[in-house]
Design a protein that fits this description.
alpha+beta; 7-stranded mixed beta sheet; 3-stranded antiparallel beta sheet; 13 helices; 30% helix; 21% strand; globular
Length: 441
Amino acid sequence: MTYTFHIRKDAKWSDGSALTANDFVYAWNRLIDPNTASDYAFLIDTAASTNTTNAKSWKAEDDYTFVVELSLPCDYFLTLMAFPSLYPLNEKFVEEQGNQYALSSDNMLYCGPYIMSSWTVGDSYTFTKNDSYWDKDNYTENVDDITFRCIQGQSAILDYEAGNLDYVKLTSEVIEDYKDRDDLVTYLSGYSWYLSFNFGNEYLANKSVREAIAYSIDTSAMCDSVLKDGSVALDGFVTKQTAINESGEDYRDAAGKVTLSYDTDQAKEKYAEACKELGVDSISLELLYEDADVSKNVAAYIMDALEKTGFTITAKCEPKKSRMEDMNNHEYDIGLTRWGPDYADPQTYMDLFNSQSTSNSGQYVSSDYDALLAKAEVTDAADSAKRWEDFAEAEKLLVSEDVAIVPLYQAGNTALQNTKLTGIDYHAAGVTSYRHLLLAE
């Protein structure tokens, strides 16, 4: 219930000033300040009904001791400390910058192994070794500069082939051309793509309709023939390689498969049942998706699959911002959407469908589901094994019993990476780390 962090006395900001416990206190207080209007205030907002960290209070006991008191045990608390919203901020510097803070590379301070030395919005940004970093002597072999460039499509690949880039992400359209190369790398993200049902729709409020949709979609074939980017079919809503216990067991392996398997006969049978239950001859629904190429391709596959079952499906394609607004306003039938983890625990996924969650766009309400979440997050908060069991039971209820959503795929990434480049640390939950980059001669 109490965490005490001892700050390194040789840790410095990039302007040479000391990094202290007060920098964490200021950053956390700023995060929950209504004037900041942070989307991630919920992580420690003690006034909220849900408080992800369970942090009750925090203080600087002295310049180098930061103490956090919890209201309940938090199984993943230490891993959450790596989330950027909880990083320290230098109060004097931030207040001096005012509303210009973080709008350019010169308006920021840094305390890691690199600083952002330049930033051209929409074009590129560069990180350079931080001379004030306490452990800089152990970074002598690491690359001096890391530049990220914003280049579209084939131009990026041509730059890579010319030796001007050491890494380039590939789209599904071109992956086949590079699949046998030694410099091809694939890895999974933590993004869970799924179909969200609006329970306010009279058809989708019918379980047989939702089951018919779930049985209609061959998610494995979709990954292999449409996505082709390393994405894998989901066995549940929580992704692989995201939550790992102290024994090294993956939550997804422990919870097992809970999604309904592709079955065209079952799909047509459930569709016929739904029509009979609703007293209609056919069912028409609209699929909402965003205008990115990947979403368009997946949406086309899903629409074809549902129409083969008997549904009449119309398309509504919008920019991502508009798609999210429509879903948040419950103005949709079926939404093709995704959720990414903020921290490495099943709770970051499962809380989405709490009946009180503002992110529960489909308005799924289940007292049994809410009770299981409360059991995991309160009653069993101090027991890691029981928490996972509670979440697994809740996930089964959500996906296979109530069929409140249809998990589709865990997003994968495929890239070309210079074989001499090593040290990129990919994390399904949290940000990718480049701090250990090495480039061999």
